[in-house]
Amino acid sequence: MSLWSDFHDHTGRYCVKYRSYIPVYERHFEGFVGKPITFMEIGCYKGGSLQVWKKYFGAQVTVVGIDVMPECKSFEEDQIKVRIGSQADTAFLQSVIDEFGVPDIILDDGSHRMEHIGASFDFLYPKMPKWGVYMVEDLHTAYWPEFGGGYRAENSFVETAKNLTDSLNAKWSRGQVPVDAFARETTSISFYDSMVVFERGMNDTNAKTKFGKQA
To answer: Is residue 211 situated within a structural domain?
Structure first.
């Protein structure tokens, strides 16, 4: 059963996603299916996507939704928990981590405001496990001034992600870019239409491996 089918055939609470997102989800999430993980979705909307994630990942997943709207608390059911607070409130985010542990996957579908996206990422990403996946969607708002963005605006999260590609490659920069925690603990940054995905792992070696016969 594909994730597309899980969304297409969903008959529970209402949800809406761009169709172009589905293959991106599958590409980065499929390795977690059937495993005991914690999946955090920032922004619950009508609650439907929380149910889809529960079905997709299986019986061992804990789905944690966070939202500022108190009515979202009613979306709770077996394997789905909802906590009410701002994604930019680090004390609130820490309380969620204290309760459920650090998420293996974080999907930011929250306010879509640049200052909120950045605050969540700066606080949560460094705490994630080495195999974690952090995905930010609906980043078309990074180009909209009313959301704190704009084309090549300094505060745009797209620009933040672009700049972080230098950190990803810091070990090759001959000292021009500091090898910081992000550089050591990130293996990829993937850009898609209105999405950016960060994958964590140990990025601490530049050793070459030889293949084939020596000439």
So the answer is: no
Q: Does residue 137 form part of some domain? A: yes
CATH code, 69: 3.40.50.150
Contacts (Cβ under 8 Å, ≥6 apart) of 177: 166, 167, 169, 170, 183
Q: Residue 32: phi, psi to the nearest 5?
A: -100, -10
147 neighbors 162 (Cβ within 8 angstroms): no
Q: Among the options 8, 10, 28, 112, which is catalytic? A: 112
DSSP per residue, 80-120: EEEEES-TT-HHHHHHHHHHH-S-SEEEE-S---HHHHHHH
Q: What is the DSSP letter of 77?
A: B
Total domains in the chain come to 1
Is the separation of the CB atoms in 108 and 135 below 8 Å?
A: yes
Tokens representing 135 are 């995905």
Instruction: Check: pTM over 0.70? Answer yes or no.
Output: yes
Would you call 140 a catalytic residue per the annotation? Answer: no
Specify if 212 maps to a domain: no
Following CA atoms 200, 141, 73, 65 in sequence, which dihedral angle do they give, to the nearest 10 degrees?
Answer: -10
Distance CA 142, CA 160 (A): 10
Q: Is residue 213 part of a domain?
A: no
| C-beta separation of 75 from 37 below 8 A | no
Do residues 64 and 40 lie in contact, with contact meaning Cβ atoms separated by under 8 Å? yes
User: For 18-77, what is each residue's pLDDT tens digit?
Assistant: 999 999 999 999 999 999 999 999 999 999 999 999 999 999 999 999 999 999 999 999
The domain in which residue 154 lies consists of 3-200
